[in-house]
From TrEMBL:
The lineage of its organism: Eukaryota, Fungi, Dikarya, Ascomycota, Pezizomycotina. Residues 25-226 form the Methyltransferase domain. It holds the Pfam family Methyltransf_22. It comes from Clonostachys chloroleuca. This is Methyltransferase domain-containing protein.
């Protein structure tokens, strides 16, 4: 792509035609189980690897009296659709922690009897905590606040803040353990190429984008599915938004999707 198109094209649009920037990030690995869309067909639903595996290990519905192992889920970016979270609560013994600074609570899909298993905080997720109102936390901050060393599923749809949030987490892990890997089993991530949200940074060159993507791979993440967000892309007239399903392919000890070794 660089040889044919050059290094001075405007990113990302200059690398969408005749080549496509997403060709650098094809989901060329396989989910070891099934792939299933969980939630609505719109922006709220996500494609999950191994939903049947989660149901077998942690059968639902979710409740305090359910003795099955808990499925720990973080939902970063809730907006006005909680169908994904509601489905997990119905089908598995999930406990879900949700964060979003743009809304006040879960959407109507989550029933009243599910609220004691779904915790919501009006807060943003990014690269550092600060004194903002609503507050801003890193992924590692909220894991520490909740007493978690590992999360089974992270859903992250945070409108461009994903680059800083995941980079911050990687730097934290590397500072703690040079041989560490991501503290979650699966990541459902929407990647946004758009104007930088206030206080956040988005890759502005092909090189910085590839470097960021490879940093995820180096931490053991492997893409097993992607799909364009055509509603978001319509705003730009080009495929600037992409939904990815990643699995942590190296954590055999904790990832419920992998066979124990």
């Amino acid at each position: 792509m660089l040889a044919e198109v050059g290094v001075h094209k405007r990113f990302p649009d200059g690398y969408i035609y005749p080549y496509n920037i997403w060709d650098f990030a094809r989901p060329s690995f396989f989910c070891p189980h099934d792939l299933e869309r969980v939630g609505t067909l719109g922006d709220g639903g996500k494609v999950v690897c191994g939903m049947s595996q989660y149901e077998n290990i942690s059968p639902g519905p979710s409740s305090a009296s359910n003795n099955a192992p808990e499925l720990i889920v973080y939902s970063f970016g809730v907006s006005d659709d909680s169908s994904f979270e509601a489905s997990l609560l119905e089908r598995t013994n999930a406990k879900i922690w949700g964060y979003d600074f743009s809304v006040e609570s879960w959407s109507e899909e989550i029933r009243g009897d599910q609220y004691n298993r779904a915790y919501f905080m009006k807060a943003g997720i990014g690269r550092s905590d600060d004194n903002a109102n609503p507050p801003m936390y890193t992924v590692q901050d909220v894991m520490r606040m909740n007493g978690h060393s590992y999360v089974d599923i992270i859903k992250m749809d945070i409108e461009g803040a994903e680059f800083d949030a995941l980079t911050s987490l990687i730097h934290f892990i590397q500072s703690e353990d040079s041989h560490g890997n991501m503290p979650f089993g699966q990541l459902l991530l929407e990647i946004h190429f758009m104007r930088d949200p206030q206080g956040f940074s988005i890759p502005k060159t092909l090189r910085s984008w590839v470097d960021w993507w490879e940093s995820l791979e180096q931490m053991g993440l492997r893409p097993v599915n992607n799909e364009g967000n055509w509603i978001g892309d319509a705003q730009f007239g080009r495929p600037r938004f992409m939904e990815y399903t990643f699995i942590n392919a190296i954590d055999y000890e904790r990832n419920k999707l992998l066979p124990s070794q």
